[in-house]
Amino acid sequence: MSASGTSPGPAAFVEGLAPGGPASGGHAVRARRGLAGGLGLRTLALGYLTVLLIAPVAMIFYRTFEHGVAPVWNALTAPNAVHAFWLSIEIVAIVVPLNTVFGIGMALMLERGRFRGRGLIGILLDLPFAISPVVVGLALVLAYGTTGWFGNWLIAHGIQVIFSVPGMVMATAIVALPFVARETMPVLRELGTESEEAAATLGAGSWQTFWRVTLPAIRWGVVYGVVLTTARALGEFGAVSVVSGRILGQTQTLPLYVQSSFENFDTTGAYTAAVVLALLSFATLLAMSRLARRTPRDRAA
User: Fold this and answer.
1) Count of Cβ atoms closer than 10 Å to residue 262 Cβ
2) Rounded to an integer, what distance in angstroms lies between the CA atom of residue 81 and that of residue 94?
């Protein structure tokens, strides 16, 4: 109320909101405080990332090329390093297609199926997220080792799983199991069943509907899951270290080669292999970033 007993007029109200008015000063103070708080949070986050990630990775690159390119090239072309690299690629080339097919089928079953025990299967699918990869490797040894449930029978038929490539493939496949399914399921949920039902009404069979309707609609979820599976398979260490035996030049993947070289004081070999893994990881992150930007445009189209 004013001194005359009447409320302030519209002019006084507008004056309070105008630039330079009393309310404007309060908004400016709050804006400055918000800006300072945002800068502080960004600085804190960047400092945390620098200490934990950027500085150690930068140091690996520095140590690798500290003495020039020639030692790096010699370490990169060493027979054991080349074998470790191609063994990692071989395992990825086996695991990714297997987990892609399994993940798509599991996603369809969990999202489109209606049956008892569906929740339990979903929990089992997420189990590799919850348990340590070392436990996965130990479980494979207990099941497929020479004293395991199936080990003696497999060896009697000329099949060796543990301390060989099949065991390494199984260990990698388990730890990378959920990615394709978990990236595809939300896309299926958002897609709904209208297009599939329309295709069935027009006379399309199950396979025709899948190839022409479902798969094109979920392809970016599948591709994103494939990228994550590839990254996980390339960097897997714990489970593979248990089942591989770490035999130099035979069952050493690139992560195992890094550890072995470092323990044997071959720092150049360890740093070089670590840089190769880092570059592969950067390529994977770049692919993920491009997919993340392309997916909204693809959906809008």
Assistant:
1) 15
2) 20
Q: Does pLDDT of 19 surpass 70?
A: no
Chain mean position to CA 264: 31
In degrees, rounded to 5, the angle at the alpha carbon of residue 290 between the alpha carbons of residues 287 and 296 is 135
Quick one: CA dihedral 143, 144, 150, 151, positive or negative? negative
Q: What is the pLDDT of residue 11?
A: 52
Cβ distance 281 to 235 under 8 Å? yes
Residue in 97, 96, 237 with CA at minimum distance from that of residue 176: 96
Over 50: is that where the pLDDT of 103 sits?
Answer: yes
Residues 6+ apart with CB under 8 A from 268: 64, 67, 71, 72, 74, 75
Q: What is the DSSP secondary-structure string of 170-234?
A: HHHHHHTTHHHHHHHHHHHHHH-SHHHHHHHHTT--HHHHIIIIIHHHHHHHHHHHHHHHHHHHH
* Residue 4 predicted with pLDDT over 50: no
CA 140 – CA 135 distance, rounded (Å): 9
Q: Check: CB of residue 208 under 8 Å from CB of residue 130.
A: no
- Give the integer Cα–Cα distance in Å for 108 and 179: 14
pTM value > 0.85: no
**138, 199 Cβ separation under 8 angstroms:** no
Q: Are residues 140 and 167 in contact, defined by beta-carbon separation less than 8 angstroms?
A: yes
Q: Is 279 exposed, middle or buried (0-12, 13-18, 19+ CB in 10 A)?
A: exposed
pLDDT surpasses 90 at 225: yes
